[in-house]
Amino acid sequence: MLESIILVNLAICFIFGTVLLNRKYDLSKLYGAESKSLGIAFLLLMAFTINLMPLVSAADSDDDGVDDADDDCPDTVEQDGWSIADNGCSYPTYLDDVWMCVEEGIAVTDLATEWKTADDEHTCSVSLSYDSTYMTITTPGIANHDMQGGPGGGINDQDYEWVLPLVPEDDSDCNPSESTNGCEMAPELGPVAVAVNGVPFYGPEDGPGGDAVATHIGQYTETEQEIWLGVCGAHAGPDGTYHYHYDGNCMHWHPENEGETHQVSITDDKDFLPEDLTINVGDTVIWTNNDDSPHTVTADDDEFNSGNLAEGATWSYTFTEAGTYDYHCNYHGSMTGLVSVVEEDEEIVWTDYTFDQVDDSVHSPIIGFAFDGYPIYGAYGTVDGEVTLMRSSYELNDGADGSNGIQDYQYIKDSGHLDACNGVLSATPEFPDGIYHYHSTMPVEVDGEMTTNHAFPYFINCYAGIAVASNMEGGGDMQGPPDADGDGVGDGWDMCADTDDTTYPNGKPIYPRGCTEEQFAILSSDDQDAAKIAYSGDNPPAPPDEDGDGIVDPQDDCDSTEAGKLVFRDGCNHGWASDGDSDGDGFADDFDAFPTNSSEWADSDSDGVGDNSDVFPTNSSEWADSDSDGV
């Protein structure tokens, strides 16, 4: 490129010089005889400089169409299947069709009105940037569909910056086809991946430590905290962070489906799947007999009748009037179904979504990316050329129900389609030659009951590639629970709501329920006992706090603090009690009115008698009442 610029300018200067000589411009008349040749040289230099300046300023050494001055990746090499971003860095072209909410935001709503404490209206927004190695996704973590925050108290915008490798790198120590040994495990709690709408996928466990999906489908009953999952297997945590625990397929489903075609399978279990279907007037339903026995699709009121359907046969019916249509199979009395048809102005909404409405005739699209950069596809993949509902290779241990979370499951090689990380190396629509990728795996009904067998871990269990660790901390800055005094303890369980600075080293440490030593000292004895125990209630639901220090796990830099001890805003003690508490009563000497008496630490009336022994703790002239008459 630069060589071409120089040649062009030399040619221009040669032409310009020839013109000067042919026209015999006599510069000596102006500047003296000896200056003629110097003058011509000077004019040639000016011409060269003037012509070179704009070209040099627009130099593009890697020929990627971006000026070097604006190029963050000046050594970009052109390659098939890659595009150039505005900053001169390249990225896989297929990503242009994967991410949602990029060009303009999508307005959505929190539909869970009974629990909302945050704003109703939100906007899905995703901003992408690239360097030579990574892509960065900046997003508020709001879905492209209406959401249901749930009992966590509503949805809050976050400030995520997810970082993903542009080219995933295999972890050479990990062989997930055999086991998880040597693989980096995905977190059991918190973010494990990011959806293409910017919302995080979470691990299978929730606050109390059980499998959130297992209790959601009724496999066991969670008694410590209400676990409720809304549209698409998602909800909000106590800090307003919206996230998926399973499914995620709905981000490619749209409720405006009037005039569409819907599929119902007649299964070899003698069921209509889905059994219940909600559609718009004008929609068509196609029934396919996937059983080796004949069946019929017969309306209870004789509105429609398919006649005999042999194995592999299909039959369709277009519903032109609103109403509720019950139907059955004439040959198998237990087989029943329902089609609910609504008028066009009775809009089908996001709460009508069920997984049964996901297209099972094609390979699912990408719904997210694990933190190692490998894509996560929806529930349907391809096995031996056939579109298949992908199943994990995890089963419940004997007698287990998911209440112990990940500990209740075992990996059984080749029992499903996917490996120990919940992935597989095979062809996908974007990678016809094959790529390692993960799948969303769904609970299904077996013998009349929903089960998490071959569904757990729902997204991923470990990383087959090298994961970017910062993502597991929340993708940058996450907002914590609503916290008016900023002490790190949520307003819903803070017993001292006007605490001052609690950051180390200038602030003061607090007990698990948000009280400094001074605030603690004026509490009643019952409240003092409560203040030393981290909140574990369900109204609002308790946040994840494994060490019980009152600081939520995503913001806790010291995750093994002794429960009930003083900690700073970062969840660390920083030697406070051990360095400054002579009598070991939990009150630092600087704040202990009786630093060598472990049974006393405060003297509210300054009479020299500790409040715990002072019958009149606010009257400095009295401290005892021998006859207990109150005087």
Percentage of residues in strands: 15-25%
Q: How many DSSP E strands?
A: 32
Number of helices: 7
* Basic shape: globular
Please give the order of strands in the largest beta sheet. 10-9-21-22-28-27
* Overall residue-averaged pLDDT value: 84
Distance between the termini: 99 Å
Low-confidence stretches: 27-31
Pairing-aware structural class of the strands and helices?
A: alpha+beta
Q: Could you give a short account of the major beta sheet?
A: 6 strands, mixed
Describe the structure.
The chain is an alpha+beta fold. Among the domains are: 2-57; 89-251 and 471-477, no CATH class; 256-348, Sandwich (Immunoglobulin-like), CATH 2.60.40.420; 481-599, no CATH class. Helix content is 11%, strand content 20%. The protein is built from 7 helices and 32 strands. It has helices spanning 2-22, 28-31, 36-57, 212-216, 517-521, 525-531, 576-580; strands at residues 82-84, 90-92, 106-109, 121-124, 127-130, 134-139, 159-165, 184-185, 191-195, 200-202, 234-236, 242-244, 261-266, 272-273, 276-280, 284-289, 298-299, 314-318, 323-328, 336-342, 366-370, 375-377, 380-383, 386-389, 394-396, 409-411, 423-426, 435-439, 444-446, 449-451, 462-463, 476-477. Strands 10-9-21-22-28-27 form a 6-stranded mixed β-sheet, with no helix packed on it. A 4-stranded antiparallel β-sheet has the order 5-6-7-32, with no helix packed on it. A 4-stranded mixed β-sheet has the order 14-13-16-18, with no helix packed on it. Strand 21 (366-370) and strand 22 (375-377) form a beta hairpin. Helix 1 packs antiparallel against helix 3. The longest helix has 22 residues, at 36-57.
